[in-house]
Amino acid sequence: MHGTLGDVSYRLRFSHFVRHAWRPAINIYRCETCISICLDLAGADHSDIELVIEGERLSIRGERAVPEPGEKEGAAHQMIAMEIDYGPFEREVQLPDEVDLEKMRAEQQNGFLWIHLPLKKS
User: Fold this and answer.
1) pTM of this prediction exceeds 0.90
2) Which domain holds residue 19?
């Protein structure tokens, strides 16, 4: 599955340089009607995120730009601390058989990417 999920469209744009991918923090919940996955992706634009399903595996890939001061603040002259991960990222989640991939939806809220995978009705 690639492309539009819910109201958000995702595309992957990697640079030509190969860098080590960081792993965003993730929470996975089993709810009454779905599996909900939450990734901490503050600062990542939805157009730089790709969701790919291969077999029973969901891959979440993309890239986050380095956060830097804006024009209003002027150019940074010194780096004092650098703890926020940036660059390419990737996470993989093993999906249970009972999720209905056709009804999967994704949304970004307050810096989190939420992926909802409804459970098949038995």
Assistant:
1) no
2) 4-65+84-118
